[in-house]
Amino acid sequence: MRAHFRYVSPIGCRSVRPDRRLQEAAVTRIVFVIPTLDQSGAERQLTLLACGLVRRGFDVQVVALNRGGYYRKVLENAGIPVFVTGKRFRMDVLTWWRLRRLLHRLQPDIVQSLIFAASSFVRLPGVCPPGTPIIVSERCVDTWKSGWQKSIDRRLARRMTVMTANSQSVADFYRDEIGISAERLRVIPNGVPEPPGAPGGTLHRELGLPENTRIIGFIGRLAAQKNLKDLVWGFHLIRQAAPEPVALVLIGDGPERDRLADFLTDLGTRHLVHFLGHRSDAASLLADFSVFCLPSAFEGMSNSLMEAMIAGIPCVVSDIPANRELIQHEETGLTYPVGKAPQMAQAVLRLLNDAQECQRLSRNAQRLIRTEYSVDMLVRRHIALYEEILSQNGVPQASRTAQQTTGPAAGSRN
Q1: Which of 4-18, 169-183, 246-260 has the lowest average pLDDT?
Q2: Cα three-residue angle 296-298-303, rounded to 5 degrees
Q3: Paired residues of 130 in beta bridges
């Protein structure tokens, strides 16, 4: 393990480059394994972490089981090799063989996985080199998991070193539902970069909205867990009492989109709700939101909520454990009982009618994110965990050098 990590605040993955002076020194090799590198929450957190680690002198490699995606190019621009195993089936024997061969060639100091499929594969017998510490990173209160998936988690639990959770509610779920001992659980929250600082008005111009229109917004997957029907119903109530014209903007896509559109048609408000689909510029569009809403039934730690908070957008969220870790009612935002659309509408109207309250809540939220949930904190917390694990394994110095061959097993890179 390197003994002289420098405190460097990462400012974005595209600008991250490894220090040449560190390339000749012994470094710790971390290999991340994840199903895809699509533009989604877990993939973004991996990319922020990987780029921050490289800037501090770590040797980082990334393995995507199914395919690359948006973040593959970001990682490669940062000098991080990306390997794709070409997984096609749920239990793909060829993927097991390719991943095993690749990891045995790379000989990582630590393997860290994200998302169920990747976490299952890295814990299968023989995949990781003998004695390699394995960190399984969980991102959500996974109530969606079926019995067989929970059974796999329980059976493979002994084959990992540590499980990290991005919120206390996620840690509690895996302790209570899967039986992971408290000693093997660590909470490392998500990290959020500074907002792009885009000027407002983009959405108003794009959607042809009058300048005085107040936009109530949501960013995320249009899935059942998000309780978006409550948001639609709440918006129907809000527009009847709002002091100015209002519009609802939903950024993201998912299986609930058509059902929501049909529900809006029934309410007669379809023309006031804008489905923008997946947007790579979602973070910059936040500047046009008057209020950000997150009505979810369950979450891990919402990236979009954190981005809204650091962008200075007042937030109204469902009162669930994961949201309460970020939003303290009447201190960093407003909460309402989950599933109660009228109470959500009241909270939004309160903010639309009180500019000073919006400013107070927004300032408090920004301060919280910058001090406790920065990308720098994300990286530093992981470095502390790596040091702890490697010291317990009796590895005071890194056992690899950056000059070693980092090429994949034949046929493993796409």
Answers
A1: 4-18
A2: 70
A3: none
Q: What's this model's pTM, rounded to 2 decimal places?
A: 0.83
CATH 3.40.50.2000 segments of the chain: 13-191+374-401, 202-372
Look up the CATH number of domain 202-372: 3.40.50.2000
Task: Indicate the burial class of 391 (C-beta count within 10 angstroms; 0-12, 13-18, 19 or more).
Answer: exposed
Q: State both tokens at 245.
A: 């014209």
Q: Look up the CATH superfamily of 13-191+374-401.
A: Glycogen Phosphorylase B; (3.40.50.2000)
Q: Is 26 helix (H, G, I), strand (E, B) or coil?
A: strand
Beta bridge partners of 83: 63
Cα separation of 301 and 166, whole Å? 6
What lies within 8 Å, CB to CB, of 272 at 6+ separation is 235, 239, 246, 247, 248
Q: What is the pLDDT of residues 220-236, one digit of tens each?
A: 999 999 999 999 999 99
DSSP lists the bridge partners of residue 29 as 59
Identify the band that residue 197 occupies on the pLDDT scale cut at 50, 70 and 90.
confident
